[in-house]
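Record passed on here:
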Amino acid sequence: MAIKKTALYSSLWASCDELRGGMDASQYKDYVLTLLFMKYVSDKAKDNPYSMIEVPTGASFNDMIALKGDKEIGDKINKIIGILAEENQLKGVIDLADFNDEDKLGKGKEMVDRLTKLIGTFEGLDMSDNRADGDDLLGDAYEYLMRHFATESGKSKGQFYTPSEVSRILAKVIGITKDTSQDATVYDPTAGSGSLLLKASDEAPRGLSIFGQEMDNATSALARMNMILHDNATAKIVQGNTLSSPEWKDDNGQLKTFDFAVANPPFSNKNWTSGLNPTEDEFGRFTWGIPPEKNGDYTFLLHVIKSLKSTGKGAVILPHGVLFRGNAEARIRENLIKQGYIKGIIGLPANLFYGTGIPACIIVIDKQYAKARAFSAADEASTQQSIFMIDASKGFIKDGNKNRLRSQDIHKIVDAFTKQLILPRFSRAVPIAEVAANDYNLNIPRYIDSSEPEDLHDLSAHLQGGIPNADLDALSDFWQVFPSIRASLYEAGRAGYSNSLVEGSQVKSTILQHSEFKTFATQSLQPFSAWYQEAALAEIAVGDSPKQLIFDIGEALLERYSHTPLLNKYDIYQILMDYWAEVMQDDVYVLTQDGWSAGKILRELVVKKGEKLKETPDLTINRVRYKAELIPPALMVSRYFAEQQSELDILQAELDNTAQALENLIEEQATEDGPLVEALNDKDKVTKASVTARLKLATDGDELAALKQVKKLFDTETKQKSLLKEAQEALDLAVFKRYATLAEADIKTLLVEDKWQATLQGQIVAEIERITQQLANRLQELDERYAQPLPAITESVELLSDKVAAHLKAMGLAL
């Protein structure tokens, strides 16, 4: 059975539970990722005699399994890893974690138990076939772990992980296309764990030749493991100081140049001159200026520019300060602009990166047209030359204590940059002449005002009443779609103002009931219906690529909603991408590996002694718990057992009525002087047992009547519970048996129509209603703001004051 992405992620993250408490996340990541690597290469080598990694006898993960419970498990794991490292020239890469470290893993039995459980977590994962036509389940799981390690670590861990969302933007804006040759090179001088390089390589159909350098030894080891886990074993990642000792040089001893470059260097590095004299740099990286001694941000940008071919393109993540800081950095910035190297700047939200909350930007370099765009002081006024700027600082979602770019944010940024789209308050091509007029300051707010227009109050409306037409006209996008709705809500008042025809509380219902809204709602679903039919999701077959599928249908959905009024195509796209991440992705991965027959599979949930159930069961039959792989029982019930469910609902309603009647009766009659007070048990509760016991002793007529009444309700409740349980068990059994008889056509209907289509359509309907609510809220706000003009308020205050004075006089308190 294919492993689901989320199941793989949760299993790997569960392995971390065995290590938490003994060490920081930045440390236990080395243990988890090393075992992940060992399991992966062992499984791959079993089925592939030509595997890039040779697994010699005594160096496989199975040899680790044999050590479970062994008193010397830590030392023996180290030796197994050492053998594999020696055989594959991976010493210093996969053998950094010490599995015999008592300070981190405990002593004696504690270490044995911890490592035994850790190995057991990986034991059940089959990683021999983790790819589905280009989809890298394990590589994605690695990225998942890296994100969580960076999140959990309280230290600055940006050096080993760049958020994958930001990596995707860099990879897409540097110009890699489907036509890019496999021989093209991509370079990262501050490679970290290699995520930026891998994202860039993924943009080319057959990948790219990867080169990188990383100063931190442990992090460079992570990068090399990451490359192997992503089937990029030939990638060249070295450890060393890129600035003082760059590894990659040409035959003449100068810097090797590459087709593409990406980088997320350490922000504001204060030690960048260590081992380096910038005034005598043999590689000529500081031709355009020397960065400040205590701030090395521009150092890495200059290194990247020098490391690109004459046609090369690159993107570097830097703190926002590089765009506007003065002195030496201002001179460098001016020179780079005049050279024409800076193609674009993308401003990112604050708090995206681990270890820092400051906002950052992406500087996009393009040397291919730099010469054509370079200019002298004589032609600074040219309007043909520009820098494309994007202010993407407002588009993100909160994710714990960090901000995170959504799929729609990434797509909007990439669309705007690659297509040079001019979008209000978001993007524009800024003429070099304008930049020059601002002393080459590139601070994005100077050129793009991304702030929302201020909501100004109209003093005349406050004094004389009426809704300002200017406020209503500002909603012109809505009135173009609902021209008659405005007329049904407002009538002309004094010049420049309108009067409300309905109460503020009735605005939304008036809109929803209007024929124009109903037409809009119907028409807004038509692109979805056309898209869904075109997507042909019922044709998914074994071997298909889930990643290619979601890319294709995502782009098609964007296109379908490109011209739909009021609805934002990126919001619609996000609905699909969220559902894909939460549910649909897992379903498609199973289908592409196991086929549609997986829809009838119910997996028994087995719990080992002493462990808790990790998954919520979908069905329980004769105390055996099952999990449906693709089709939840609720969908089966809805399609095939609606009548039985209706009967069950009736039984539940009857039970609820009885329970409510019982609760009301006890609440009324178990008071201090009530007839049921003697039926309270030692916990001050009236129960069936306490009522039965009291009936044997009671003699008072009122008390007996109350006791008999409440006992009758208890008896009825017991009988109803029994009937409900029997009916539920019968329905569960019928559903359980029905799974086995499902034909492929049944599975496709249940999954494609009842599950995917119904869910997505429901969420798009909710988005349509959200737009309506947006209009209604604004109109209600305006109505409440100007409902009572100042004279009316003053008159009301005077009337109330007179009433108070009259009451005080009547009480003899008047002055």
In short: The mean pLDDT is 87. The CA atoms of residues 535 and 553 lie 6 Å apart.
